[in-house]
Amino acid sequence: MYSIEAFDAVVVGSGMTGALAAKELCHAGLKVLVLEAGPSLAVLRADDTGSHEACGDQHIQSKCYAYSKNTRQYFVNDLDNPYSFPPGHPFSWIRARTVGGRSLLWAGHCYRMTDQEFMAPEEDGVGESWPIT
């Protein structure tokens, strides 16, 4: 017999944003369920037989700068995960299926802007200030 458990919030994806959202919701006292579509990196690495065909089943995913023989197992199979877009408006949907999301493929680059970056033109007199702060 199955039991149904109630949650206050459901977070889809454990990537950078999903993980932070889940953390903040939990700290606020909510009961949170995090759903993840992919396995952990440890599982992917253990199961990697090198059988992934470069570009064959990943013709869209292979357009990503981070796609390589070392990372292709983290990307979805485009033939198994199709999508469509309006004629004349092509869109490359890059999707990673692993715990932690696409941020694992950023090679450690995650720039954070502070007020100083947004207001730099006012301080050094070069360029235009951002319209928002």
Structure commentary:
With 133 residues, the protein is α+β, with helices and mostly antiparallel strands. It contains four helices and two strands; from the N terminus they run E-H-E-H-H-H. Helix 1 links the parallel strand 1 and strand 2. The model has no long low-confidence stretch (mean pLDDT 83).
How large is the count of helical segments? 4
By helix and strand content, what is the structural category?
alpha+beta
Helix content: 10-25%
Q: Unreliable stretches, pLDDT < 50, 5 or more residues?
A: none
Strand content: 5-15%
State the end-to-end CA separation. 53 Å
Task: Compute the CA-based radius of gyration.
Answer: 20 Å
Order of helical and strand elements: EHEHHH
The pLDDT mean sits at 83
Major sheet description: 2 strands, parallel
The beta-strand count equals 2
> How does the overall form come out from the CA principal axes?
extended
Spatial strand order of the main sheet:
1-2
Structural key phrases:
133 residues, alpha+beta, 2 strands
What's the structural blueprint in terms of helices and strands?
Elements: E1 9-12, H1 16-27, E2 32-35, H2 41-47, H3 115-118, H4 120-124
Parallel strand pairs: 1-2
